[in-house]
Amino acid sequence: MKNGFYSKSRITFLFIMLLLNYDNSKADDTCSHVDQEFIQSHIQIRKFEILSKKTVKDLCEVIIKMSGRLIPVYCGKDYIVSGNLYSKGIILSQEAVNKIYSDNIFYHIVQIKQAVAFNYIPEKINGKEIYMITDPLCRFCNEAVSKIKPLADKFGTVVNFIVISYNGKRGKAKSIEAVCRNFGLSEYSLEQWKKNDDFNKYQCEKGKEKISRAESISEILGIDAVPAFFLNDGSFMSGADLNNLENLLSK
């Protein structure tokens, strides 16, 4: 009986190992041919970096970084499909993209903290922190800024604001101004200072350095649109829908 049990266990163990080896070889086979040369043979792009590869739905899912953007592509043996992969209403591509964002956030947390222009600290804090990348001339960003204080108070979450602009010379000058004038959340939220076109009045070295750090970390993280949010646990989201942010904080 004892020997019989041992034999059955041994067979089960060998069967499991065969399955594992099969899955691994299948994954390796799916992505083994995928490299920069293969991608360039199908898509006319020059400068990009492969960040991750894995098998998804019998295809090789590849996340590439190009011009600061994270782009999912799916590779077969002799073709490539670019864009998100959906299955039953779920964006399968997002898992890999979020993993890269999360890893980058943890790895570059020191540089991220150095790029913070100002923060909001509620009376009671729970240890979670939000980092919001925002643009003073972005309407959707400003709408999100105006709504984030109640959310921070509700969850006891510190909000760190990283100011950057995609609105040319004026936007960059306004970002620098926010730092040079030592704005907090209440001052930054006011609309009047954003409408003033006196570019040279508040342009200090401290502000220029801070905005340079913000631009650098945004590029490193692959953020090309604002507003964008991430938590100190590595969670990431983009867009101005604070319901999604509330869902992240609720987890």
Please give a structural write-up.
Helices cover 49% and strands 21% of the residues. It has 251 residues and is α+β, with helices and mostly antiparallel strands. The strands form three sheets. The protein has a five-stranded mixed sheet with strand order 7-9-8-10-11, sandwiched between helices. α5 runs parallel beside α10 (242-250) and α6 crosses α9 (205-221).
Short structural summary:
This protein has 251 residues and is an alpha+beta fold. It has helices at 2-31, 36-42, 92-107, 109-114, 139-155, 168-180, 185-189, 192-195, 205-221, 242-250; strands at residues 49-56, 59-66, 69-75, 80-82, 86-87, 90-91, 118-120, 129-134, 158-163, 228-231, 236-238. It has 10 helices and 11 strands.
Which key features would you list for this structure?
10 helices; globular; 5-stranded mixed beta sheet; 49% helix; 251 residues; alpha+beta; Glutaredoxin; disordered N terminus; 2 domains; 4-stranded antiparallel beta sheet
Itemize the secondary structure elements and their pairings:
Elements: H1 2-31, H2 36-42, E1 49-56, E2 59-66, E3 69-75, E4 80-82, E5 86-87, E6 90-91, H3 92-107, H4 109-114, E7 118-120, E8 129-134, H5 139-155, E9 158-163, H6 168-180, H7 185-189, H8 192-195, H9 205-221, E10 228-231, E11 236-238, H10 242-250
Parallel strand pairs: 8-9
Antiparallel strand pairs: 1-2, 2-3, 3-4, 5-6, 7-9, 8-10, 10-11
